[in-house]
């Protein structure tokens, strides 16, 4: 798509799927807003694609907090889309997120978001294999259940 002229790509748009009402035998629209837990898939793919293709990347799905936005940028996103967060908390939430980002940048001695962008992408991180399938067994081995 980048070779064909796309200036930017959005990863990943959520597919809204209807629910089935068995009592009334109807198909119902059912909007479930995203949660921060859904951030990992698009975060991983932004981090893998950053610097590998010649286009800007926009991350969508699961962005709700200052940390979510900063992770998106560190992975390589030029844009962090947060529709669910704005639907839940209104447009004034943008001011809170911006202030939080500015505070984080100052506390961590960054001059700008541009300096952070892509710093934890696959091509820039200390352990690039962390984004690959080969890391799967390591991740599974790290799980420690907290039941008695």
Describe the structure.
The structure is a single chain. The chain has helices at 40-49, 66-75, 83-89, 93-107, 113-116, 136-142; strands spanning 8-11, 19-21, 26-28, 56-60, 79-81. The chain contains six helices and five strands; from the N terminus they run βββαβαβαααα. It has one domain: TIM Barrel (Alpha-Beta Barrel). The protein is globular and about 55 Å long. With 148 residues, the protein is α/β, with parallel strands linked by helices. The model has no long low-confidence stretch (mean pLDDT 89). α1 runs parallel beside α2 (66-75) and α2 (66-75) crosses α4 (93-107). The protein has a three-stranded parallel sheet with strand order 1-4-5, with helices on one face. The longest helix is centred in the C-terminal third of the chain and has 15 residues, at 93-107.
> How many individual β-strands?
5
Gyration radius, to the nearest Å? 18 Å
Spell the H/E element sequence: EEEHEHEHHHH
Helix content: 25-40%
Number of domains: 1
Average pLDDT over all residues:
89
Report on the biggest sheet: 3 strands, parallel
Give the CATH superfamily.
Answer: Aldolase class I
Q: State the oligomer.
A: single chain
What is the number of helical segments per DSSP (H or I, 4+ residues)? 6
| Sheet with the most strands: spatial strand order | 1-4-5
CATH topology: the name is TIM Barrel
Q: Specify the CATH class.
A: Alpha Beta
Gross CATH architecture: Alpha-Beta Barrel
Poorly predicted regions: none
């Amino acid at each position: 798509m980048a070779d064909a002229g796309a200036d930017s790509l959005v990863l990943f748009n959520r597919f809204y799927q209807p629910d089935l009402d068995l009592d009334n035998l109807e198909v119902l629209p059912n909007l479930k807003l995203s949660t921060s837990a859904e951030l990992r898939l698009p975060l991983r793919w932004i981090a893998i694609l950053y610097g590998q293709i010649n286009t800007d990347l926009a991350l969508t799905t699961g962005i709700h907090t200052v940390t979510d936005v900063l992770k998106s940028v560190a992975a390589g996103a030029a844009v962090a889309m947060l529709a669910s967060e704005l639907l839940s908390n209104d447009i004034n939430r943008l001011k809170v997120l911006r202030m939080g980002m500015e505070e984080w940048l100052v506390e961590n001695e960054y001059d700008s978001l541009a300096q952070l962008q892509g710093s934890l992408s696959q091509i820039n991180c200390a352990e690039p294999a962390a984004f690959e399938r080969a890391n799967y067994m390591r991740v599974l081995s790290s799980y420690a259940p907290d039941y008695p």
